[in-house]
Amino acid sequence: MNETIGTLTPRRKVIVLMSCCLSLLIVSMDATIVNVAVPNIREDLGASPSQLQWVLDVYTLVLASLLMLAGAMGDRFGRRRVFQIGLTVFAVSSLLCSLAPNVETLIAARFIQAIGGSMMNPVALSIISQVFTGRVERARALGVWGAVVGISMALGPTVGGLLIELISWRAVFWINLPICVAAIVLTAVFVPETKSLTMRNVDPIGQALAVVFLFGVVFALIEGPGLGWTNPRVIGVAFAAVLAFIGFLRYEARRHDPFIDLRFFKSIPFASATLTAVCAFSAWGAFLFMMSLYLQSERHFSALHTGLIYLPIAIGALLFSPLSGRLVGKHGARPSLVVAGALITVASAMLSFLTATTPVWALLCIFAVYGIGFSMVNAPITNAAVSGMPLDRAGAASAVTSTSRQIGVSIGVALCGSVAGGALAHTGADFAAASRPLWFVCVGLGVVIFVLAFLSTSQRAARSAHRVAPLIAGTPVVTEGEARVG
Question: 419 and 451: one domain?
Answer without folding.
Answer: yes
